[in-house]
Amino acid sequence: MKKFVLAIAMIGMGSFAMAQQAPQDKKFNREEMKQKMQEKEQERMAEMKKELNLNQSQIAQIKGLHEKRKSEMVNNFEKNKEQRQAKMAEMKAKRQQMDNEMKNILTPEQYAKWEAGKKAKMEQRRAMMKEKGMKGDRKMKHGFKTAPQQMN
User: Fold this and answer.
1) Which one of 70, 80, 100, 111 is CB 3.0 to 4.6 Å from 106, fit for a cystine?
2) b/e 50-65 (16+ beta carbons within 10 angstroms → b)
3) CA–CA gap between residue 53 and residue 120 (Å, rounded)
């Protein structure tokens, strides 16, 4: 039992220490992601220019179309912000209600063990998400190659 309590304390301290580092990392990641997105957009345009043999007028029109689409997406994101926040608040309330109900059902020891398991699973998910985000080697190919010919 002492080992279990000690393990929970270590996990708690570790997650607390990680939480302190998050805001700085997020700012860095946003700037890095913006830069990567711009680079990928330039790469896609170069690929389209090469594969489709586009002229400068077509490239300008496509860039304009992409900018228009991007601004529409930003506007939609801002428009739906309140709905997302309301849903998040609703989900948080439901999660809190479930926690309260579990607290009433379980003994204090069982509840502590359940909470520790929940936190451990959350840390695993965060680690997996971070790992997926760090890989970056999964590129979507926007090839414009023709379909293979069927043989008669």
Assistant:
1) 111
2) eeeeeeeeeeeebeee
3) 53
